[in-house]
Each structure stands twice: as structure tokens, then as C-alpha cells.
Amino acid sequence: MQATDQTEQTLFEAAKYNQAILDTVADGIVCIDARGTIRTFNKASEEIFGYTAEEVLGQKINLLMPRSHADRHDDYLDNYAKTREAKLIGSRPEVEGKRKSGEIFPIEVALTEVAYNGEMIFVGVVRDITERKRIEQLKSEFIATVSHELRTPLTSISAPLALIHSGKLGTLPQMVSSTTEIAMRNCQRLTSLINDLLDFEKTSSGRAKFNMQLYRIEELISQVLQDNFTMSEDFPIRLNLPQETADERILVDKERLLQILGNFVSNAVKFSDDEKSVELYAERKTDTVRISVVDRGIGIPEEFHDRIFQRFSQVDGSTTRKKGGTGLGLAISKELAKSMGGEIGFSSNEGQGSTFWVEFPQERRPS
Ligand SMILES: Nc1ncnc2c1ncn2[C@@H]1O[C@H](COP(=O)(O)OP(=O)(O)OP(=O)(O)O)[C@@H](O)[C@H]1O
Ligand SMILES: [Mg+2]
Description:
alpha+beta; Beta-Lactamase; Helix Hairpins; binds adenosine-5'-triphosphate; binds magnesium ion
């Protein structure tokens, strides 16, 4: 009897100890069983949702969700009970939560499952992302406004400059002509930076429009060669297009895909130094078609690999950099590929060259 008392005491102490740890965690931790009943609700969860643990323990998790999610969640748990297939486990979806006050707010939930005493327990680590979303919104509005405000006066500067430079207003002395040319070139750089920024904001906030159509790979590839003909005069682009791939079709917005591949080609040329070899390669994978641009240029250092698709990230970011560009090309390309249902990636060894690729599902539908 005494032994049982002691065991109970030990268990009680262990539970208190675990609860104390859970309560120091800055993220909300909410555990539910397979029926959706709340079994754990730590201090941070109380702060996030406005309920005390006593109010929610034993209640259904639906209490913490807006109606639309709550219905879907029941289906999800039912489906899990039948199929044991937990699609969201291991992911970190952004969803909506509901506070005690009724306020709906954005949360990020990292989900895992644990088997405990023969039953399945789902553990959700909940983060309130209201502030992050607000800042993202502010930032994208700010960029959109500033870029718009800059574009108008910039057009008023570059159009007259082009007119002066053309000589239609009178022949210019050589010195004036070369000065206006520099001014024009810088106007163009500024315009393309502003356009890139706007483009990035539009695509990443989901406001960009895509005109998705089916295209044969051969048609797309020949367009890339044509578009980049002048840039690659010193760098004739080699084409590697197996016949089986040429006839494949993918569903894309053609202009946007050409923008992605144009950036791959311009990077390949720009970062190739003396090794003048750029290859455009299309291959059929199991369910997808991959288009790659392969160069034998300077390559990308290992420590830079996980930053390459971030905005403004350039291996040589110094002001004395020799190569032009703003470091937005790949960030935009990634957003564009994602928005069209594709994937983007690369492989590279420093000093040996790089391969940048974009991949889309093969389309089986008739065009
Ligand atoms: N093929 C490549 N070989 C070596 N480095 C590359 C290659 N492609 C990209 N990089 C590195 O990644 C950086 C980012 O590329 P990204 O296309 O985003 O920007 P950028 O070319 O510098 O400027 P932008 O495309 O905006 O004009 C480059 O500055 C370069 O350091
Ligand atoms: Mg680029």
C-alpha cells in the first residue's frame, strides 16, 4: 500500500516537473488525442488564446478554431482514424486560430504525433504570427508605394534624356553625348531595379496574374535561344534537347518562364569568366520536365548555397563588385516558379561551374 502511495507521489512529482517545463516554453503547446480532445494546454497557450487551461482541458480542439477550420478538422481526424494517414504531420502550416474573445488571428502550427499508452497524441506547437503578418503587409505596401512614386518621375527624366541623346534637338558635342549616355544607362538600371522590386512584391504576395497555357518544350526552348542571342554572342549557347523531351508539354505562363530562364542564362554568362560554355538542357523525369542552364564558370561557394534564392544575396556583395545586377533575379525566379506550380533548384561546385534548373509537371491533357 505504502509502495503504491510512493509511486503515485513520484508520478505526481514527475507530472508537476513536466508541466513546469512546458510552462516555460515561449510557444504554445497544445496536445490533443485522436478524438480531438485537448489534453495539454501550457501557459503560453493560455496567453495566445485567452483561455485558462482549466477552461479548455477536456474540450474539443474546435474551440480554438474558426468554424470553417473546425469542420475540416473533424473530417481530418475521422480520415486519420480510418487511414492512419496524417498529411499534416511534420509540416508547419499557417492557419487561423480563434481567441476566447472571438477574434480570429493567424497562427503557425508545427505538428508531430506521439504514441502514448497505446493511443495517438498529436502535439501542436503554436506560434501567434499576427505581428509578423502585419509587418509583411506593411512592408509590401511600402515597397509598392515607394516604387510607384519613384517610377513616374524617373520616366520624366529618362524620356527627355533619350530625346536629347538622340540628337533630334540638335547635334551634341562628344562630351555631352557621352555624359547623357551614362545618365541614360543609370536611369535604365534604376528602372529595372524598381520593376524587379515591384515584380517580387506582386508575386510573393500572390497579386501577380499568370496566363497559364500548354506549350511544347521545343517551342519554349527555341524562344530562350532567340531571346538571349545578343547577350550570348561571345557565348554561343549549346542546345541539348532529346527528341522525346522536345514533344513534352508543360503548363506555364510563357513570358514568366522565359524570365526565369533568361535570368539563368544571364547569370551563366555573367559568372563564366574565360570558360565560355553555356548549355541549355531539357530532360524528361518521371512525371516532370526539367530545363537546366549549365555553365562551367566560377561556381558558388558551399557556404552561400542556402542563401542563393534570397533577395539581394550576391556572393560578391561589395560596392567594388565587377558584375552588374541587384541580386533579385533568382529570388523573383523562385517566386515565379512556385506560383506556376513548378520547382527551382541548382547544384554547383566552386571553381567548376553551376547548373540552375526549373521543373514542371508533364501535361497529359490534350492542348
Ligand atoms: N551561374 C552562376 N554562377 C556563379 N554564381 C552565380 C550564378 N548564378 C547566380 N550566382 C550568384 O548568385 C547571386 C544572385 O543571383 P541573382 O540572379 O539573384 O542576382 P544578380 O544576377 O546578381 O542580379 P540580377 O539578376 O537581379 O540582375 C549572383 O550575384 C551570384 O553571386
Ligand atoms: Mg541574375
